[in-house]
Amino acid sequence: MAKINKNYNKLQAGYLFSEITKRTKAFQTNNPGVEIMRLGIGNTTEALPPSIIKGLRIGVEKLAQASTYTGYTDEQGDKRLRQALSDRYKKRGISAGAAEIFISDGAKPDTANIQSIFDVKSTVAVQDPVYPVYVDSNIIAGKKEIYYMVCEEKNGFIPSPPGKKVDLIYLCSPNNPTGAVATKAQLKKFVDYALNFKSIIIFDAAYSEYIQDPKLPRSIYEIPGSSKCAIEINSFSKSAGFTGVRLGWTVVPIGLITETSGPGKVNELWNRRQTTMFNGASNIAQEGGLAALSLEGQRECKKIIEYYMDNAKVIKQGLKSLGIVVFGGMNAPYLWIKTPRSLSSWEFFDKLLSEAHVVGTPGSGFGPHGEGYFRFSAFGHKENVQKAVRNIKKNLKL
Length: 398
Ligand code: MLT
Known about the structure:
Shape: globular
Number of strands: 13
Helix content: 25-40%
Radius of gyration: 21 Å
Number of domains: 2
Distance between the termini: 56 Å
Largest sheet: 7 strands, mixed
Strand content: 5-15%
Mean pLDDT: 97
Order of helices and strands: HEHHEHEHEEHEEHEHHHEEHEEEH
Number of helices: 12
Strand order of the largest sheet: 2-8-7-6-5-3-4
CATH topology of the largest domain: Aspartate Aminotransferase, domain 2
Low-confidence stretches: none
Structural class: alpha/beta
CATH architecture of the largest domain: 3-Layer(aba) Sandwich
Bound molecules: D-malate
C-alpha cells in the first residue's frame, strides 16, 4: 500500500512564486486589458550576448556530426568547464581544484539536494527571511529542526551565528531576498563557528557577480579555514542569463570535515549522489558556460549585470522619492522595502497590483521576519522598469 510522504503536509500551502502567479492571473482575468509590470521573480530578461550564443551554437553543431557527437558525459561535468571555473577561482586567489567542482543544471536543485548527504537528524540553520528552497527541501527530507537566524534592520539583515550548536548553516550572500551582503568579518564569524562545532556552511553565491564594492567577498573561500567547513553553490543563471538554459556548479572541497567524517568523505558522497541521481548538465549548456567564462564572455556578461544594476538604481531612487525606506539594490539585484503605513506584505502586494499594476514579492513569503517587507527585483527590460516606477509614483496611494 503506497503512502505519501507526510512531510509535504508540513510545507506552506504553495510555493511562493506559484502563489504570486496565481494572484496575478486572477487580477488579469478580472481586469482585462490592464498592462501588468513584473518586478516580482528574479528572472533574467535580456538577450544572451554574442559570445555565449556562439558557444551554444558550437554545442549544437557538435551534435550534428557523429565524430563530435556526445551522449551522456561525465556526471560531474565537462572537464574543460570544471577547469575553467577552477582557473577563475585561482585568479581570485582561491584554490578550488576541478575535482572539487561539480557542474549541475543550476543552483536551485543543488541547494535543494545537498542536504541529502547529511544526517536526517541534522539541525539546519537558515536566515529569516530566506530563499524558500532551503527550508522546503529540508522539511521534505524530514530534517530534525530548522533554526531561524533573524535578519532585521538592526543587524543590517546579516545575522550572527546561531546561539546554539547546529549542523548545517545556509547562507546566501548577496542575499535573496534582502539584497544585503555579508562582509569578510561577518563571514569569518560563521567560519569560526562552523570550525568550532564541525558544522557545514552551505554558501549560496548565485548573486556574487552583482557585488560592486571590491571589499565585499564574492566567495566564502575568501575566508581562511572555510575550505574545511563550507560548500559553495553558484550559477550561470543570474551572472550570464542562463535562467532558461540551466547551468550551475557546486564546490565540495576535499578538505571538508564533519563530526563523523574526515577529509574527502563529503566530496565522495556528493559524487555518489550525483552519479546516482543526475546524468550531467546539458552538453550544449556547458559549451555556453565555457563561452561565458571566456574573457569576451565575462566582459559581455558584466555589461548585462550593469544594465540590471541600473534598473536597481531607478527603482531605488523612485521609491525613495516617495519616502519609502529601501534596503539592498547596491550590490545585489534585489531591493527590500519596508511596507508603507505598516501594511502587511500581502496587503501591499494587492495594493501595488491594483493601484500601480506592478507585481513584486511579499516579504512574508520568505519567512516570519519578512512580514512588513516587500521585495522588488531589478531584472527586467529598462523601459518596463521605468514604466513601473512611473506608475508607482503616479498611482500608488500612500
Ligand atoms: C527569485 O525570484 O527569488 C529567484 O528567481 C529564485 C530563483 O532563482 O530560483
